[in-house]
C-alpha cells in the first residue's frame, strides 16, 4: 500500500503514467525486496495450511451432502468460473467455512473461451501512455504481477510465449519498440524475458508464413499462455482439497433472506439451491453470499432486488482454431490494428493455431454461437499478415467458439453509461457481494479484493489472504522432465506422456495408473480416444473424479478436444459416452440423450454447424470446362452403371478392386458428409458441388474427395487389364 501511494505521488508530480517509469531503479529494487519477502511468506503460509483432502477428492455426492448438512457457511460463492473458483480458494485458505455452487459445469462459460493468454495488456499500456491515464497504468502493473504469480503456481498449465509484432513501415519500428520496452519496464523484475527487434530476414526465419512484401522487421515480446479451462479446474479442485464444498450442476433458485435483529434490515443469508441432475432442492445457509457469475451478474443481483439497474454490458468474442501449420510451434503473432481497429492474436495452442478475437455487443446467453461473419472477419485479418503462398481456407477452420466478456459499468458512478475498464466490487443494501468485470489474468487479485470487502462488510473472523504463491492442483512436484518418468514407468507414448504431464502436472501419475493395457508391443498402456490427438480413455475415468457429469464436460473442459477439432470430438463421443455410462451406471436412454446433447453442443457452440454448412451453402458450381470433364470422369469410375449417383456399395467395389479395406459404417459416414438431401446416395451434382467447394477453400479435408482422387490415381496407374491376365480369350 505504501508503495502504491509513493508511486501515485511520483506519477502525479511527473505528469501522469509515464512519469512513474522514471523511478525505475527504485521500482526494481522494491520489486526485488518484495519478491523475496513474498517468497518467504508463501512458504510459511503453505506450511500453516491443512489439506483435508490431499489424497483423494470427495465425490460430488459427498460435496452435495456437505452443502445440505452444514449448519452455516461463512461464505457461499455463486459461480464456478475463474473468479468464482478464485474466491472460493481465497476464502477457504483464510480458514473460512466455504461453499461454491455452479449451475452448469466449472468453467463452462467465458473462462473456457478466452484467447488463452495470461497478459498485462499491451494495448492498455498504450492507452495509459497516450492519455496519461494512471488507472490504466495501475491495471497493467497489477496484471503483470498476477501474470508472474500464475506462471509460478501452475507451471504445468502455463508458460511464457514469444509474440511477434510485424512492422511494415519504418516509422512504426521505433514507435512500437518504445511501447514494448515500456511494457518490459512496467513488469520490472517480473519481466518474463526481454523484448527484442528482428531484421526482416530473421523475422521470416522464425515465422516463415509471414507476408514478405514491404516487411521492415519485427519486434518480439513475451506474455504468458495457459490452458484456460484446465487452469479454472485446477483452482476449483485446489479449493476442494483445502476443504471447500464445491458442486457443479447446482443452481441458485432464489436467495434466502432474514431480518437483522440489530438493524431490522433485510439481509441475504444463503440460497435455495437445486441439483440440476436430480432436481432435488435444498437450502445452503451462509453469513455472506458472493455473486461471481460473470455475464449473469445481473440475474443474481435482480434476485436480490428486482429494481436494481443492470451493470453488465456483454460483449462477444469469437475465436477460431486452424491447423498447426499456420504458425510456428512457439511463436505467436499480434496484429495491433485490424481493418476496424481491433486487435487480433494469432497463437500456437495445443499444437493447433488459435486466432481471435472479435468484440461485438451481444445478449447474455448460456450458449453463445460463433457467427459466420465473425469467422470470416478473423480469416481475412489472418490473410493480411500471411504470405500469399499460404492459402487461408474457410474449410481449414477446425473449431470456432464465442465467449461473452462481462464488461461492467460501476453502479456507484454518477455516469452509469461509462464502462469500467477494470473490475468492480459492490455490496448491496442486503449484503450481497458482487464481483464483476476484470479479466482472466487478474482473477486472484480480484478474489482477494472481494474477500477483503466481504470480511469487512460481514465482520467475518478471517486470516489474511494466502493465495499469492499458493501452488495449484498438479503444480507441486511438476518438472519439465516429468513426462519421461511416465514413459519409463508406465509405457505410455511419448506424445501422450507429454500431454498428461502438461494437463495434470504431478497428478498425471494418477491418470496413468487408470490407463488400460493396449495389448500391443508399444505403447504398453494408454488407448487413444482418436488417433491424431493424445487424449486417452483413462482421462474419461479421471474426469469423473474431477466432477465431470456429462459427455460435454469431457470433450470441452476436462480434455479440450471439442475446442481443437469438432470432427475429432464427434468421432470420440460414442466411446466417451460408453465409458461414462459404464462408470456412472447410465441407462440406454441417458446414453442416447448424452450423445445427442454433446453433438448439439459441437454443432452450435463449437462451430460444427458453420463448418458443415460450407457445402450446403455452395449452391453455385464454380468449375471450368476441363475441371467438369475431369471430375465427371472420376465420378464415373465409381458409377459404372451410369445411374447418376453412387452408394456405399459402389465405393466398396472400387476399393476392393485396389485392395483397400474400409469399414462399412465409416463409409456411410464419409458419404453422409456429402449427401446433402440425405437420401443415402451421392448424386453427381452433389459431387460437383463438393469439388467446387474444395476449389474455393470452403471445404478442406473432405474424406470422400480425397478417397476418390487416390482411388482414381491407383486405377490409372494399373492401366487396362490384359486378356491373358484376366484369364479369358482364345
Automatic annotation (TrEMBL):
Cellular-component GO terms for this entry: mitochondrion
Compartmental location: Mitochondrion
Key words of the record: Calcium, FAD, Flavoprotein, Metal-binding, Mitochondrion, Oxidoreductase, Repeat, Transit peptide
Biological process per Gene Ontology, one example term: glycerol-3-phosphate metabolic process
GO molecular function, one term: glycerol-3-phosphate dehydrogenase (quinone) activity
Catalytic function, reaction form: a quinone + sn-glycerol 3-phosphate = dihydroxyacetone phosphate + a quinol
One Pfam entry name: DAO
UniProt-listed Enzyme Commission number(s): 1.1.5.3
Pathway: Polyol metabolism; glycerol degradation
Domain EF-hand: 626-661, 662-697
Superkingdom of origin: Eukaryota
Keyword check for Cytoplasm: no
Claim: Transmembrane helix is one of the keywords in the record: no
Cofactor: FAD
Function: Calcium-responsive mitochondrial glycerol-3-phosphate dehydrogenase which seems to be a key component of the pancreatic beta-cell glucose-sensing device.
Family the UniProt entry places it in: Belongs to the FAD-dependent glycerol-3-phosphate dehydrogenase family.
Protein name, entry field: Glycerol-3-phosphate dehydrogenase, mitochondrial
Source lineage: Eukaryota, Metazoa, Chordata, Craniata, Vertebrata
